[in-house]
Design brief:
Structural class: alpha+beta
Helix content: 25-40%
Oligomer: single chain
Distance between the termini: 41 Å
Number of strands: 16
Radius of gyration: 17 Å
Length: about 260
């Protein structure tokens, strides 16, 4: 089953409008709380979450929603889910606070632990990336121009992408094993978008992420011809006992880092 993609794109854009209303309001944009893990939480996180969750529940009442800002159900309850929505209502909260525009809205549909649909919306540039198993990957810019996404598997000079806010020293060591000639630091799930669009070739992440940080990006990347695996080349799966992701590596081509290499 694939929910209507146009309705999902509208949900993402509607959430983006809510986020931008707060982003461009000097007082509201500065209201920041901190969660138990010291990660920031803005009014935009809350407002976007409320809108997305409500609309997904209305669109697909039989599909549960897992969101960063929702109370997480126990593993005993969710372990038998065939489908679920995996949502990050504001990915790149630090980028939002730093006002560099590199934040996104991520919506993914996961089936049997694998993302099969992804939507990533960039509110500041009014650009949306999406992919489904039926359509493959697409980008729609602010002018409404629609472009098919396809990873670049032919380049011998690679561009790597990495986190602007969460880089780890181990990443430099790993990337040295590949023909990387340029590195780009960028926030949120935009890293997956650059890979899917053929503008970058490899993304290695050492530091932990959460399932909602990667699900939409993984769907868009893999459905545009790319790969995302664990460091041992195993499938990168969701709805785990712990929602914390381990390290992963993404590539336009199949890339893997086996222990002992």
């Amino acid at each position: 089953m694939t929910p209507d993609i146009d309705q999902l794109l509208k949900i993402a854009r509607d959430a983006g409008k809510v986020v931008l209303d707060i982003y461009y309001d000097a007082e509201k944009s500065e209201e920041v709380e901190f969660k138990a893990d010291d990660s920031p939480l803005t009014l935009a996180d809350k407002a976007s979450n409320d809108l997305i969750v409500a609309k997904l529940k209305s669109l697909t009442p039989d599909i549960p929603v897992m969101s960063e800002e929702e109370i997480h159900v126990s593993y005993d309850e969710r372990k038998n889910w065939e489908y679920f929505w995996c949502v990050d209502p504001l990915d790149g909260t630090k980028e939002f606070i730093n006002r560099n525009g590199e934040f996104t809205i991520n919506i993914a549909l996961v089936r049997n632990r694998i993302p099969v649909l992804g939507v990533i919306y960039i509110p500041v540039s009014d650009t949306i990336y999406y992919a489904t198993q039926e359509t493959g990957g697409w980008k729609i810019d602010s002018e409404g121009n629609k472009t098919a996404l396809k990873v670049d598997k032919n380049s011998t000079d690679w561009i790597s992408v990495g986190s602007r806010s969460h880089a780890a020293p181990e990443e430099t060591e790993v990337l040295a094993r590949y023909p990387v000639v340029k590195k780009i630091a960028i926030g949120s799930s935009l890293k997956f978008c650059l890979l899917a669009e053929g503008l970058a070739h490899i993304y290695f992440r050492q530091n932990p992420t959460m399932e909602w940080d990667t699900a939409a990006g993984q769907a868009i990347l893999t459905l545009s011809g790319g790969q995302m695996t664990t460091l041992n080349g195993e499938p990168f799966l969701y709805n785990k006992v712990s929602l914390v992701n381990g390290s992963f590596i993404c590539g336009a081509q199949y890339v893997t880092l086996h222990k002992g290499e």
